[in-house]
Amino acid sequence: MSDTLSLFQLYILPCSPFEQASTALYNSAYQLWHSVWSKTLTDLDGLTHLYSDQFTRNDFMVAIAHNQEVIALCCFKKMDLQLNASLNDSWFKPWPPSFLQQLSVSFKKALVPSWLSIHPKCRRSTGFTTLNFGLILSELIAIMTLHTQSELAFGTPRKDRSVHLLIQKAGGTTVFEDVLHHGVLIDLVCFFSSNLQNHYFSDETQKLWMQRLSLITNNNNSKENYENHI
To answer: Domain 5-228, CATH 3.40.630.30 — does that match?
Structure first.
């Protein structure tokens, strides 16, 4: 593994298995997700099997690849906060319903990031790389909030892994602290687009974003400019 950014490629991929322009990349992304989160949820909840629909239910993902192996990703789902079905989504289980109702009065278009995954060999704690993929993915959440013209995005970063500090650095606003979820403390965070307009993102994240490739396709099964997709 090299720390040279030119060796990494940022992709935007659909999470649906029926819309893939690259089977190999999609399988690599799925394998990373399943490997990371099977272990995590087994450790936290005693989970015996992680079903793929938890991955495919999302709309799209950002995925960072090295030699066509996905080594970091984050999934996203678009939400209409003014629909009752959205507010009753299982993802919002740790969120106070009254707060969500309050948000829905002023906000409609939201983005829900989930399943942030980094290959164990690419975590800075291993000393294998100096690139901070945790921060890069956190900043990509903020960038995707702006890019999809969402009014806000949500986050539930773990505190024992200091992910909440990366989310704050990326422009997230902590709205509730020290919430117990899956047996660990998390913060509940919102990325408000109005707070992100002039936010500074790291050079590494900006360079990856500028060179991103979208493999999302339109109904004619041809590659489509991502700016026109969402």
So the answer is: yes
